[in-house]
Amino acid sequence: MGKLISLFNCYYFIGIFIFALMVNLGSAWPYPMSRLERDPIMVGTIAATIPLTVLYLYFIALISHRLQSSGNRFVKQRNGTGLVFFVSCTALPIWLCHLLVLYFTFTAVSAKSLFSAAYFAADFWFFAIPLISYCSYLYFYPLNALFTFKNSRVLEEEQRVLRKQIGSLTTTCEDLSAAKRRMRNEKDELLRTKEVLSARLSVLESRESEVLQLWRQERSVDVLFTYFQQAYLQYPLDFEGDLCMYHIVLVHKSAGVYFVILVNGMKMLLNGEGQLKVLANPWFVNTSQNVLVNMLFCKKELIGIPNRQGNKLLQLRPPYRTSLEEVYTCSKLDGWLISTRRLKDNFIGFWDYNNLRKMDESRLLERFNI
């Protein structure tokens, strides 16, 4: 690292020497010997320009350091506006100072005026162009100045990290804006979907209302079953700690304990609250000594049982008979669905039209905690 710095400074002083030659020889740069022979003090002038140039470089480095450490917004932008501002703050004062130095030096040895058209058309640019070029270079690479100041490298590193963070934040903001636009589009899509579903729901509710109205007029359990099938039973069983009456196909008593058989075949223990509500619900009919069946899931007709005179077999509606047969044997199901001769009148009485007129479909929506 030390070797690199020494080599860097060596290049700097070579450049300073060349700059001193350019400034003093000016338009005579292609023919230096003629000007050196014509002007005996030119060598001394070149020698004096070298420390003056070093002083200029110190001033430029100092101003650059102050601007960088102040966090000036023009300098931080690293664009055309910032470059013009930086060059104005560094090159312009040096140019004015250099003109004053030349003025007093020139008038001391000559009666001619320095500020002539010939000077600004030729020799002036040998000073201005290198100066502006160097200041522009230092604007983009401030750490390459001949003179560095305390914490300047740390400051530049912090500014580099800060610029990187600003770039990351800009990218993040752009990503957030894009995500916001996507969410807005998704929201609009959801709203459109909601409108479509609302329209479909209105149609379904209208149809359900018609079906429910038909049940109330005709008192057909088949019609009521169609309504519940469309409105409730087509969805997966998800009671979340509560059961509705339309979840239960039948209730059976075993060893003094009541169990419910649900539409999906699940068997659950019936607690005290549920027992009271189910036994009091008119949709559950006691068809045998230990079984109550939900009439919503039954057909009106009974089937005779061979060799069991007087006993009949209840018919479950096909979808639920099939689902229960996947869990229980046919003989087990038939044992629950027997309507005994003694309790057969309960089943027949339920289907009496006068009784159906009293039946309230909302009792099937009653819930209880399990």
From TrEMBL:
Keywords tagged on the record: Coiled coil, Membrane, Transmembrane, Transmembrane helix
Residues annotated as transmembrane: 7-29, 41-63, 83-106, 118-140
Source species, domain of life: Bacteria
Coiled coil: 173-207
Protein name, entry field: Uncharacterized protein
Species in which this protein is naturally found: Sphingobacterium athyrii
